[in-house]
Specification:
The complex is a heterodimer of chains A (360) and B (171). Helix content of chain A is 56%, strand content 6%. Chain A has 360 residues and is of the alpha/beta class. Chain B has 171 residues and is mainly alpha-helical. Chain B has 2 domains: 98 residues, no CATH class; 71 residues, no CATH class. In chain B, helix 7 crosses helix 8. Chain B is globular, with a radius of gyration of 18 Å. Classes of the chains: A alpha/beta (360), B mainly alpha (171).
């Protein structure tokens, strides 16, 4: 069960969803402004160790959202893996390593990161506006560079798919999240010491009250996260019963409203050529995660080790489909016509979701 | 001036930002992004100026996906909100006004040239990294994606490595 099953951007409620997007963006922009992130001088201070505000705000935010997510999923309210796969891009080790470094250089040269430059421009700063224009130019030039085969090769190098730290070190996500929270607090204390050394002042004897409350909140959330490991629903999350659709329901949908569903057949092309659900397309199970979300319900035929969010599996597979009375009534029983260009249908033209927040 | 310097405590701002991020995760099932919208705006401008060029480059054409308008996307609307929210924050704090933030030793043309060229680097980098500090480091970092953490650590490494070379800009 998901807390809110990602219907916010479905075709039916798209306008409302986009309105929510503006509201969420406003909250994001407002908080960034209040955090002093619309100011190049305040942001650049991070890299001269004078004011480690960027680090403090960013890691407090990461820890807060991370703990909130593992706690809600630990209680069975959300599905951590579904949400995480929907949010995080695939990992591409080399372009991410190089891209991160280049972005860091661009950060200290411009004084902003792409998001904060928007807030700066909105505050009336021309340097922020020029950074925004530069970012637009850079993203465009990148598409031109991708025309070079060697560059495109680099763009896709070190591909690891959906890859999470708790899979690498094989611990419960809640335990890792709690550990990250503790490390963040220790790093904050260290950062304050560095600031004091660089500025030549002594750290305040008693830290501000708001800081103590913030640390206490984060620590309490970390403890709650650890407690949820013991909650039995956590086990459900790991092996959630997959949502399925019966052959009868699918047959009715195919007849009544085929435009509301998208049927993806992940079986071998040979099997697909033999029998298939009308209107289905044949792709490999591996490319399922590249499936762009167009608001239609997704039905998977065959065996997918991991269902995309919103997708349901055809219960009983193609055999159940063929045995369904409605299907029998619809078809004459003969073999289906040859499949529509199997080769062309094998890939999606648009790996939309997995391009991540900044290149999708 | 005193009022204009009033910012939130960084930890408080961090918790607020984390709650916005968590809300985005749970309500939209999406990340908070920035440069993805920049990419779309770039493609949109190119479509107006040189539609044939966009059609000829599959990377540009693919940005559009199956929507008829390249700007019809969650991130574009979210970034519109970031702009409005940022302006709201600046106005209500008395910080709104046309200006150029620069070190006293830096002239306005030099500062704007730095701002633009840094932006270009970040635009390129965000495409390589499948996201910028918002969409990749912040959002991906919060869901403990390995790539996001590689990217994030690399951002700090790049900033610290290059800070010395541009130190005059900020003095």
């Amino acid at each position: 069960m998901t807390f809110f099953p990602f219907t916010a951007l479905s075709t039916a409620a798209r306008q409302e969803g986009l309105l929510v997007a503006v509201l969420i963006g406003m909250a994001f922009g407002f908080v960034l402004e209040r955090a002093a992130f619309g100011r190049a001088d305040k942001l650049a201070a991070q890299f001269y160790l004078r004011d480690m505000r960027v680090f403090k705000v960013m890691f407090t935010a990461i820890v807060t959202a991370m703990l909130g997510l593992v706690i809600t999923s630990g209680l069975g309210l959300t599905n951590l893996r579904d949400i995480s796969e929907s949010i995080a891009s695939f990992t591409f080790i080399w372009p991410m390593l190089v891209g991160g470094f280049v972005l860091g250089v661009g950060f200290i040269v411009s004084g902003y990161c792409p998001g904060t430059s928007i807030v700066s421009a909105a505050s009336g700063n021309f340097d922020g506006l020029f950074t925004v224009l530069g970012v637009i130019t850079g993203t465009f030039v990148y598409s031109e560079l991708q025309q070079i085969p060697k560059f495109q090769q680099f763009h896709n190098s070190g591909a690891r798919g959906s890859w999470f730290l708790y899979d690498v070190i094989k611990v419960p996500p809640q335990a890792l999240a709690a550990a990250v929270a503790v490390m963040a607090i220790l790093a904050f204390i260290g950062a304050e010491k560095v600031e004091a050394i660089v500025s030549g002042t002594r750290p305040a004897l008693r830290p501000p009250r708001v800081r103590r409350y913030a640390f206490a909140t984060v620590s309490a959330l970390a403890v709650v996260a650890l407690v949820t490991i013991a909650v039995p629903t956590t086990q459900v999350m790991a092996k959630q019963p997959r949502s399925t659709i019966s052959a009868a329901d699918l047959a009715r949908a195919v007849v009544d409203a085929p435009w509301t569903i998208r049927i993806i057949d992940v079986r071998d092309a040979a099997l697909y050529a033999k029998d298939r659900v009308p209107g289905s397309i044949n792709v490999s199970a591996a490319s399922l995660s590249d499936l762009p979300d167009d608001g239609r319900a997704v039905v998977i035929v065959g065996d997918a080790s991991r269902l995309p969010p919103n997708a349901r599996l055809l219960a009983g597979g193609i055999a159940a489909w063929k045995a369904d009375p409605l299907v029998k009534a619809m078809t004459s029983g003969g073999p289906p016509p040859p499949p529509p260009s199997v080769a062309g249908a094998a890939t999606f033209s648009k790996p939309k979701k997995k391009a991540g927040g900044c290149s999708s | 001036m005193e009022r204009a310097e009033k910012f939130w405590n960084p930890y408080l701002a961090g918790i607020a930002l984390g709650l916005v991020l968590l809300t985005t995760f749970l309500v939209m099932g999406k990340e908070l992004g920035a440069s993805g919208a920049a990419n779309r705006i770039g493609v949109f401008i190119a479509e107006v100026l040189a539609p044939a060029h966009v059609a000829a480059n599959p990377n540009l054409a693919a940005t559009k996906g199956d929507r008829s308008n390249v700007l019809d996307d969650w991130l574009v609307f979210e970034v519109l909100g970031v702009f409005l929210g940022g302006a709201l924050g600046a106005v209500t704090a008395g910080r709104f006004g046309a200006k150029v933030i620069r070190g006293s030793a830096t002239t306005i043309p030099v500062r704007l040239a730095f701002a633009f060229s840094g932006g270009v680097l970040m635009g390129l980098a965000a495409r390589a990294g499948r996201g910028c500090t918002s969409g990749q480091a912040l959002s991906g970092g919060a869901v403990l994606s390995v790539g996001a953490w590689i990217f994030m650590l690399s951002v700090f490494a790049g900033g610290y490595a290059f800070a010395w070379f541009v130190r005059r800009q900020w003095s």
